Amino acid sequence: MANEWDDPIGYVLRSSTSGFSAGAGLTQIDSLAFGMIVKTQPSTDTREVLYGLLYDIHIDDDPLVRQLVLAEAVTEETIRDQRVHRIAPVEMSVLATGYRDVDGQIRQALPPRPPISLAPVYLCTDAESREFTDYFDYFRLVLSASQVPGEQLLAANLVRAALTRPESEQYDFLVSAGREAARLLSGDMARLDNLLRLIYPNRVRITE
Amino acid sequence: MALEFHKLTDQVDRMGQDLANQQEEIDSKIEVALQILNAHADPAYLQYILDRVQDAVAKDAGYRGARPLDEPLGNTYPPDSLPESATIIATDGSQIAPNTHGAALYYLLNIGTIIVHHGSGDAPHILSQPYLFYEPEYMLTQDRGLITGAMVSARRTVSEMAALAEQAWLNRGDERPLLTLFDGSLLFLGIGSDVPDRDQLYGIYFAAMTRLLDVQAQLAGYVDRPRSSFVAGLLHLLDTPEDMVTRAVLASNGRIEGLQDIQYFRSLLGPGERTALFVQMSPQNKDFRRSGGDTHEIAFFYINVASAHEAPHLARVEVPMWVVADRTVLSRIQALIYHQCQQLTSRYPYVLTRADELAVVKGEETRQLNMLIQVSLTRHGIEATESEKQSTKNSARAHKTRHVVTR
Fold it and tell me: Per the CB < 8 Å rule, is B116 touching A81?
């Protein structure tokens, strides 16, 4: 698991207060997953940290890659060359879900300012993920974001967050999260049903 | 103003029609070329052909065609099986030419290199090395004129060969066969009499080649879509009665004038196969033999790099004599080059594609470098501005932006 300010998984390409996109090399692909909590810093003040959920990961092609896809005799060295050296970035999108203020408090709201270009992006440690998901105020940001598949993203995040907790606490955590989701989605049973099915505790244990 | 295409459509149509008409003429010339080639394809003719070339040279008839090295004219050779392991090094270069309207006078060479350990499964080693030249000794010719584009190109070619030799030297002593692949002709054709320091550049170039020989590296120059007609010159010579060989007769290729070698060899070569080895009878090649010795003279062959289900795609591969000395080695090089070409659907060696990508300096990068230089000069108290001409050009060629009119 990542240390707090371990190697960055990527660098900010574009940003706004509602989220940002970050670029990374193909070698980072194994460390990324939908619903992960990531962090970056919106300014040079290292006390301020911006948190967000990773919701889209895509890999761009280029004319050379398209040729390689169609060629018959591509070697392992060539594939490694493309993956390790060429500037064919993995681009990930992050939905801003909160920030740690200069006073050290986590606030589950849109950050006061976006991260700047090339700010390093890190995976949160288990402890940070637990701390961030102790409160559910960010649910509303996720479920109301039009650019993301809200229930899928929140469910993926909650399942991951449950696994950072001791086994004895996982069930209660997911039930609490489900109750908060039920409160927010009381007017939309289809979305609520979808979300609850995705985080249903027994299923989480089976897939663990 | 953008190119006015509507004024070009008639001209383009006429061009298409003319080229289509020429194709019929080319087809009949191909038939003639193949007739001459087949008539001299028997191994028993080899000595006769060599004698005819020798005779043309002796008559000082300005013969610039090819001579067969030691293989029958019409023979074709399949590649060896692909070696399990090999080290392939390729280089390519690009340049920013001097601009008298820029803030400062300079030129830049950028050399890209890729080193692939074929069969290892490892990611290749890549590097690119930029060199900035601004000192008067690099910018001015001996008669105090500004260095020309041809001179910069010649220096780039030398740098490419030197980089190839440097990396081969660093990879010497490995048990794996070492293939060094050069982009273009090995005959350093870009260095004309308009390059004042050509002797010095030749010296560096030959020294780099010798370094490759010293480490037993196999060197090959890869020429894609070659327009050469060296073998056509030979066929014309063979088509000409011995007593008719004169400078005037050899000034053209007679019945097959205008025909390129690849236009008739394409019907002879299967996928991966090569033609016989030839030697180009040019002054450049003579210089190579004189300056570098017999080992540095350049031979060549044509190879079909298309895959089995494709139309033939021929390239010319040039190799020094030390490479052709062992035909098993040559056959292995042929296999490696063919395999390189199978990795991209464009049928161009992957390593050269990547070396080019590593070397190329894009327009935006040139603009950024110019800006960097301008800032540095200003910081050091030098007034640095582009000429009005350059500044105006930049404005006119910049991307268009939309003017939004709001109510």
Answer: yes
In chain A, what is the straight-line distance between the N-terminal and C-terminal CA atoms, in Å?
A: 17
Rounded CA Rg of chain A: 18
Number of domains present in the structure of chain B: 2
* Mutation for testing the A interface, residue in B118, B345, B346 having most A CBs under 10 Å: B345
Residues B153 and B259 in one domain: yes
Query: B341 to chain A, minimum CA–CA distance in Å?
Result: 9
| Both structure tokens of A91 | 């681009």
For residue A20, what are the CA distances in angstroms to A14, A52, B265, B395? 6, 9, 57, 33
Can you list the residues of chain B whose pLDDT is less than 70? 1, 189-196, 395-407
Tell me the pTM.
0.80
User: Residue length, chain B?
Assistant: 407
Domain assignment present for residue B18? The answer is: no
Interface of B with A (CB under 8 A): 114, 116-124, 126, 307, 339, 342-346, 350, 353-354, 357
Asked if the interface predicted TM-score (ipTM) of this complex is over 0.85, the answer is no
Residue B3 lies in a domain: no
Q: Tell if the CB–CB gap between B344 and A67 is shorter than 8 Å.
A: yes
Residue A162 lies in a domain: yes
Hey, are the CB atoms on B122 and A75 less than 8 Å from each other?
A: no
* Mutation site, A67, A68, A69, interface B, largest B CB count within 10 A: A67
C-alpha distances (whole Å) from B61 to each of B26, B53, B245, B247 are 26, 10, 7, 4
The whole-angstrom distance between residue A35's C-alpha and the CA centroid of its chain comes to 4
Give the minimum alpha-carbon distance from B112 to chain A in angstroms, rounded to a whole number.
13
Count Cβ neighbours within 10 Å for each residue of A28-63 and write b for 16 or more, e otherwise: beeebebbbbbbbbbeeeeebbbbbbbbbbeeeeee
CB A38 within 8 A of CB A123: yes
B200 and B179 both lie in a single domain: yes
Backbone dihedral region for residue A112 (phi beyond 0: left; psi -120 to 50: alpha; all else: beta): alpha
The answer to whether residue A192 is domain-embedded is yes
Q: Which two tokens stand for residue A22?
A: 């970050």
User: From first to last of its 208 residues, what are the pLDDT tens digits of chain A?
Assistant: 444 566 888 999 999 999 999 988 777 777 889 999 999 987 766 678 999 999 998 887 788 888 888 887 889 999 888 888 876 578 999 999 999 988 889 999 999 989 998 899 999 999 999 999 999 999 999 999 998 999 999 999 999 999 999 999 999 999 999 999 999 999 999 999 999 999 987 655 544 4
Structural domain that includes position B369: 364-392
